């Protein structure tokens, strides 16, 4: 192992900055950033001990791995640093990462607690950013939206890409408006040790996604009655033909011209979504000139190959994703155009799509709401369901899983869903896009847990990672896939492309332009095999064949003593008790 790798391994899980209590005055290492004054304090209202109690309760989770828990849960010390007299939202605190150098291509997590003074009402975003070598652009960090007078937990991450390690790294804390006091305690920066987390996720997936099955196998002996006989000793094979958690990808018309692209898609994916060909700016770039020809071509291909297609998307809430002629309409004209789009698209494909994403990225845009009123988003859901009651209607947004965007916290996403439901919108699912950078598993899981309280199914809808280093890319993708697959609320995973030259994001491919699999592609194919159950053996003396398999659809093949092969199909659904099935051949 190279020296740099040995050093990184040695510091896995170790905090690379000293805590507030490491010096007598509590300020060692902390310095003002911008215009403010710093002072150290002990918590006077006992709120920090209550946070520690909450962490202790979390540590008792029977599904937690102790090594993994120690990485992700900094315990408040009871002392904090206060930044007061802040002149702007950029003013705050900073300190060096000093205990060990930052290594390139290693994911680090940032964690800690931040609090606000009570001088201003409401909630405010607190940003923790990591900058290297005096650079102006942060390499990562995290965001917490904190109520005035209260504490919130920071969960973030960063990575320095490339071959050269940075000479210096600093953590900066800022964000609330000028005049709001800012508190920090328990700040941690540590290299992520993914091994305990992956071990935990394998155990969790076995518990969440698999079930014991007992096949009671017999052979009919009568033609006109139900007489059966044992087939003990017969050879039996069980093959899973479909997993209950489909994994799919977006596809494009250009990609479908490439045989290698088509081959990878048909071999490795269960579902499809059209990357652009169904979006309004694509189907009606010029007012009144509507064409679904490209969409029909792709949907026809998927129909021929048995791949269900998600409807993406009817509308897009972000203004710069709305075509110019729509942006130029008056309010009355826009309302008429919205109704025409709804009727034209949804009626055309009635009964064809199992899902629709109705108004994309409402956490990040409000084009229709600002022009047509607060009820327009819910109206889109209601009207879509009226025209085509079959599909589940999804919200869909980005950064919700990353803990780095104050506009897209899980809490704000849940509030959006709740408001839509209050207005009568039949929201049928939550889309978490998954355009991730340097992902950390428990941060993703925390977001999924918070969204799961809605009781709605969650889909990862646009998953991609970006890393020039192939091994880093494969690791990042594996982390997100395993987190999603092991979470009980997640019911499907869609990738946002897979082949070099046919992806929205660079350095994200599973397969190169020449058809060669990357490390990420090999890892992905390996996971698909790992998450597929097959079993073979002989029927026991009691006429039973037992196995444990992933939820989904199976085919069982029984070879009789005469050499005849007989087939049956069955489904394994969720359940705690063993599934016992009578199999008469």
Automatic annotation (TrEMBL):
Domain of life: Eukaryota
Family matches, as PROSITE patterns: GH10_1, GH10_2
One MF annotation (Gene Ontology) recorded for this entry: endo-1,4-beta-xylanase activity
A GO biological process held by the record: xylan catabolic process
Annotated spans, Disordered: 57-77
Alphabetical UniProt keywords: Carbohydrate metabolism, Glycosidase, Hydrolase, Polysaccharide degradation, Xylan degradation
SMART domains in UniProt: Glyco_10
UniProt protein name: Endo-1,4-beta-xylanase
Species of origin: Zea mays (Maize)
Lineage: Eukaryota, Viridiplantae, Streptophyta, Embryophyta, Tracheophyta
């Amino acid at each position: 192992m190279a020296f740099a790798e040995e050093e990184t391994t040695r510091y896995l899980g170790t905090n690379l900055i000293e805590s507030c209590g490491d010096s007598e005055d509590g300020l060692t290492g902390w310095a003002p950033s911008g215009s403010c004054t710093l002072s150290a304090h002990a918590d006077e209202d006992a709120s920090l001990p209550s946070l520690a109690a909450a962490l202790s309760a979390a540590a008792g989770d029977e599904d937690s791995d102790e090594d993994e828990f120690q990485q992700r849960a900094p315990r408040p010390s009871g002392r904090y640093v206060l930044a007061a007299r802040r002149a702007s939202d950029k003013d705050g605190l900073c300190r060096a990462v000093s205990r060990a150098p930052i290594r390139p291509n290693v994911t680090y997590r940032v964690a800690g607690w931040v609090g606000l003074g009570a001088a201003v009402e409401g909630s405010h975003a607190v940003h923790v950013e990591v900058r290297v070598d005096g650079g102006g652009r942060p390499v990562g960090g995290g965001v917490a939206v904190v109520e005035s007078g209260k504490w919130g937990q920071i969960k973030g991450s960063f990575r320095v890409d490339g071959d050269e390690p940075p000479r210096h790294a600093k953590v900066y804390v800022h964000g609330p408006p000028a005049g709001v006091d800012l508190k920090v305690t328990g700040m941690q920066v540590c290299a992520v040790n993914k091994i305990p987390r992956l071990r935990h996720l394998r155990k969790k997936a076995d518990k969440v996604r698999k079930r014991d099955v007992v096949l009671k196998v017999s052979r009919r002996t009568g033609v006109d009655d139900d007489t059966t006989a044992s087939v003990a000793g017969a050879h039996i094979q069980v093959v899973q033909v479909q997993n209950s958690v489909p994994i799919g990808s977006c596809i494009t018309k250009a990609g479908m011209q490439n045989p290698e692209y088509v081959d990878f898609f048909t071999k490795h994916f269960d579902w499809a979504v059209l990357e652009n060909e169904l979006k309004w700016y694509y189907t009606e770039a010029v007012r009144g000139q509507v064409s679904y020809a490209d969409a029909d071509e792709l949907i026809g291909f998927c129909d021929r190959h048995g791949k269900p297609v998600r409807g993406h998307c009817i509308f897009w809430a972000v203004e710069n994703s709305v075509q110019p002629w729509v942006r130029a309409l008056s309010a009355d004209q826009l309302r008429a155009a919205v109704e025409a789009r709804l009727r034209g698209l949804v009626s055309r494909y009635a009964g064809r799509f199992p899902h629709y994403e109705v108004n994309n990225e409402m956490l990040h845009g409000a084009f229709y709401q600002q022009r047509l009123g607060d009820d327009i988003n819910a109206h889109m859901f209601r009207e879509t369901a009226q025209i085509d009651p079959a599909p589940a209607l999804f919200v869909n947004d980005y950064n919700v899983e990353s803990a780095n965007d104050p506009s897209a916290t899980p809490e704000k996403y849940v509030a959006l869903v709740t408001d839509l439901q209050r207005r009568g919108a039949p929201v049928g699912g939550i889309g978490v896009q998954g355009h991730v950078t340097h992902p950390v598993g428990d941060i993703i899981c925390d977001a999924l847990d918070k969204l799961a309280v809605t009781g709605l199914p969650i889909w990862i809808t646009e998953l991609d990672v970006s890393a020039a280093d192939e091994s880093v890319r494969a690791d990042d993708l594996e982390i997100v896939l395993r987190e999603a697959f092991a979470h009980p609320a997640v019911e499907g995973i869609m990738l946002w492309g897979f082949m070099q030259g046919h992806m929205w994001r660079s350095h994200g491919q599973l397969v190169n332009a020449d058809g060669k699999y990357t490390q990420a592609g090999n890892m992905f194919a390996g996971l698909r095999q790992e998450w597929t159950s097959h079993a073979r053996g002989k029927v026991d003396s009691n006429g039973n064949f037992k196995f444990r398999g992933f939820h989904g659809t199976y085919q069982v093949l029984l070879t009789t003593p005469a050499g005849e092969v007989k087939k049956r199909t069955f489904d394994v659904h969720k359940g705690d008790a063993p599934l016992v099935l009578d199999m008469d051949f």
